[in-house]
């Protein structure tokens, strides 16, 4: 019997290498064909290739060389100690790493505009307002003050992001504790779920927790204000409720589903939940399935109307019809479904390679080994499998480009599914009976744990140029600062004006200002410019910068040569 378990862990290693080669092949093909998108290609080259080379080298060494018995025995002993860990220890570990990283690694700086808007909207929502009020003397400049992902009321009095508000509300209420709490809470829910659906497997809870705590994606995404940690938590909370019986439990599940749909994009939860609802229906719990399906559809209808509701709550008018932000829902869906080309295949190769390399090395192999087991078991376990695969297919077709993200964040909300299935594979294949499997699990945990500090450094170094530029702008002695660095990537992401009490000048994007508007600003305010030289000095990536600009120049001076006081 132990020989069979040893063969299973050997097969897991082969699966891991095969997946790496497949995803890396797709990624290399994309680069070779010249399909250059800065973020996925940069992450591929600078973040993931070094780790890919290292893990493949380790794989070859393990395959070719015979590991000393003393090393195998040591890893086996370590596994035995892992089993004795109290369940709260990995949960606390995740929370602590995420919270410390949010301040120490990312400097509590919301790098992407998704993260920024979660905080900006959260500031308004926590203050009891559905939208933030635009400063009265700057209402004509709202488009320049927030050129990305913003919507402005029809009367020009209020603004907010184009995202749904629930994650932002939690970010506003809990501040930097929000995402670390969601990340740690999601890990705690894994224990509840595996006890509920795999009660005979005594080691399954700690297997889940170790896989979660050694996932760099799980931990580092928990440092950010991205909605993905909240999605993961709410998905698992819904699963912990919906497969139980009782009216009160189902009402609670419906409330969780309602909030989950409104976190930031309403499509995420329905795609995740659909196959679980189907499995409930097929298992005979038709009333529960229909009830939850109705709740999800009603939640989609409500949150799809959120923009209009927000305008009414602040007593304002919706904007005029037209523009991407105000397009009908059906038009948005069709645009997403028809916008992709073959380059999306290579982009997804980079995404999936990144997803695999930011996890514990045994996560995806154990998941793959669990596929036939989950299919045979049906119910909850088949729902876990189909939910994850449906989400992958949806993202590949609709949103192959993730933009910023640590790991592949568009699969983050099904990371719980994958982890639970990995624990199922470990348990049903009885790998705890194999010394080689136990030693391999402990070794994989050590390797993944050792990689987390390296991923910390990568995240810090990548975010540093924008953090430095943001700090420099906050110190400029001016009332208005014009960001005018078109030759540098994501320079307009530095244009941030919420919350209202942020330090430094009001920021505006030069590309969104007319010459007449600039002249008007110069007549009313002290104005400076963050130009190409400033962006170069901060280290922002260049797309052809020629170095022909002054640092923090006065935008209103003749020829733009007078320097603003710093």
TrEMBL record:
Where are the coiled-coil regions?
none
Where is the region Disordered? 540-566
Keywords per UniProt:
Membrane, Transmembrane, Transmembrane helix
Its domain of life reads Bacteria
Q: Where are the transmembrane segments?
A: 49-66, 87-109, 173-194, 206-228, 248-278, 290-309, 357-377, 384-404, 410-427, 439-457
What's the protein called, per UniProt?
A: Uncharacterized protein
């Amino acid at each position: 019997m132990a020989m069979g378990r040893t063969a299973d862990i050997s097969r897991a290693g082969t699966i891991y290498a095969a997946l790496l080669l497949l995803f890396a092949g797709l990624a290399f093909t994309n680069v070779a064909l010249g399909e250059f998108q800065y973020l996925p290609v940069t992450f591929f080259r600078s973040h993931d290739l070094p780790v890919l080379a290292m893990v493949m080298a380790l794989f070859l060494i393990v395959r070719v060389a015979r590991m000393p018995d003393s090393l195998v025995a040591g890893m086996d002993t370590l596994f035995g100690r892992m089993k004795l860990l109290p369940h709260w220890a990995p949960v606390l570990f995740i929370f602590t790493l995420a919270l410390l990283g949010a301040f120490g690694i990312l400097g509590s700086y919301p790098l992407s505009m998704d993260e920024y808007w979660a905080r900006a909207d959260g500031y308004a929502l926590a203050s009891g307002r559905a939208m933030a009020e635009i400063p009265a003397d700057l209402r004509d400049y709202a488009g320049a003050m927030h050129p990305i992902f913003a919507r402005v009321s029809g009367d020009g009095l209020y603004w907010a992001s184009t995202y749904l508000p629930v994650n932002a509300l939690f970010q506003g209420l809990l501040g930097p504790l929000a995402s670390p709490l969601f990340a740690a809470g999601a890990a705690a829910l894994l224990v509840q779920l595996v006890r509920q659906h795999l009660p005979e497997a005594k080691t399954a809870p700690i297997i889940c927790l170790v896989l979660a705590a050694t996932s760099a994606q799980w931990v580092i995404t928990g440092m950010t204000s991205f909605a993905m940690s909240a999605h993961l938590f709410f998905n698992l909370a819904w699963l912990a409720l919906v497969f139980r019986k009782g009216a009160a439990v189902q009402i609670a599940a419906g409330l969780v589903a309602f909030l989950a749909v409104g976190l930031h994009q309403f499509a995420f939860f329905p795609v995740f939940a659909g196959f679980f609802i189907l499995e409930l229906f097929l298992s005979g719990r038709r009333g529960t399935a229909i009830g939850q399906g109705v709740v999800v559809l009603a939640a989609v209808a409500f949150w799809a109307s959120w923009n209009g509701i927000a305008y009414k709550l602040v007593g304002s008018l919706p904007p005029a019809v037209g523009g991407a932000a105000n397009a009908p829902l059906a038009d948005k869906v069709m645009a997403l479904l028809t916008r992709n080309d073959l380059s999306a295949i290579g982009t997804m190769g980079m995404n999936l390679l990144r997803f695999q390399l930011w996890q514990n090395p045994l996560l995806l192999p154990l998941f793959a080994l669990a596929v036939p087991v989950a299919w045979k078991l049906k119910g909850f376990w088949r729902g876990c499998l189909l939910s994850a695969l449906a989400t992958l297919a949806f993202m590949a077709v609709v949103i192959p480009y993730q933009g910023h993200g640590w790991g592949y964040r568009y699969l983050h909300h099904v990371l719980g599914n994958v982890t639970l299935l990995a624990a199922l594979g470990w348990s049903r294949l009885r790998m705890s009976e194999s010394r080689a499997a136990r030693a391999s699990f402990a070794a994989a945990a050590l390797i993944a744990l050792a990689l987390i500090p390296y991923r910390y450094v990568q995240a810090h170094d990548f975010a540093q140029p924008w953090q430095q530029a943001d700090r420099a702008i906050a110190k400029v002695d001016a009332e208005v600062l014009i960001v005018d660095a078109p030759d540098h990537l994501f320079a307009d992401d530095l244009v941030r004006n919420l919350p209202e009490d942020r330090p430094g000048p009001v920021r505006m994007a030069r590309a969104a200002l007319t010459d007449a508007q600039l002249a008007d600003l110069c007549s009313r305010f002290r104005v400076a410019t963050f130009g190409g030289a400033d962006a170069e000095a901060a280290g922002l990536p260049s797309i052809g910068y020629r170095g022909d600009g002054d640092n923090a120049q006065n935008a209103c001076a003749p020829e733009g040569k007078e320097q603003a006081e710093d």
